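From the shared-data thread, chain only:
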Amino acid sequence: MTETSLVEARGLTKVYPARGGSAEFRAVDGIDFALRRGEAFGFLGPNGAGKSSTMRMISATSPISGGTLRVLDLDPVTQGPQVRARLGVVPQDDCLDRELTVRENLYIYGRYFGLPRKVIRERIAALLDFAQLQDKADEQVEVLSGGMRRRLTIARSLINEPEILLLDEPTTGLDPQARHVLWDRLFRLKQDGVTLILTTHYMDEAEQLCDRLVVMDGGRIVARGAPRDLIAEHVTREVLELRFADQDTAAEKLRSSSRLAGGRLEVLPDRLMVYTADGEAALAGVHELGLTPLTALVRRSTLEDVFLTLTGRSLID
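Structure, as tokens:
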């Protein structure tokens, strides 16, 4: 493990044993990655890609099946309690006690770490301010909105002042406003020096939060790098999205055309995608072919386009 790496994996593998006559399942298949102090690092991919299994191994709650893994220069298999004491974990499900108040949830979690009562009370005050829940401190969790519960879960994970915060699908199920509030809280944490590791299948979330990321599919890493670098490496500057009443006929004409400004055609179940350096020029070429799309959108390329290019399917399949 290098001096700057907080987490380092080599050939990391997770295999679930066969059950009920089914074959064993290789959820994580020999991946390598290294996480540096002070960065936000993401695991991007569709459901079942191996993201959550990787997070459970990092958090020392699921043993590795093969390869090596070091977290904070510790072995999660033999030194699990020491690893967990220095981590904060935000699971997909909030797991809050809804019959207790916001303050009580924070207090009880602090006691799990054996923190003195005075220290817990001081940290609760700061965490309530961080999560913007001061006016809800003595309300039962049951009455909180989904966004408030998610902020409380993150605040609770910080009670032990962790060196690394692991977030598994942190904004799933939240409305756009709540998602942006949560992004702001996470950005503040990063500014304060907390190292973030997150899984997500939201491409805009990965672009907003991650310094670097890996794209996973079928338990393997299919691409890695900074979001902008991945977009520049794997896709064109712009994408033209088209929808037609008769998509099959339109796709056939576009495949045989040379009027798409050098673009590459991708056929999806609900739309056609033209990857090109000049979306407006490609759209003009579509009209020159006598095709009239129901809708046409020119936009910049995103990480979703990277994934479509690499795997041929959507991140949320």
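The chain has eleven helices and 13 strands.
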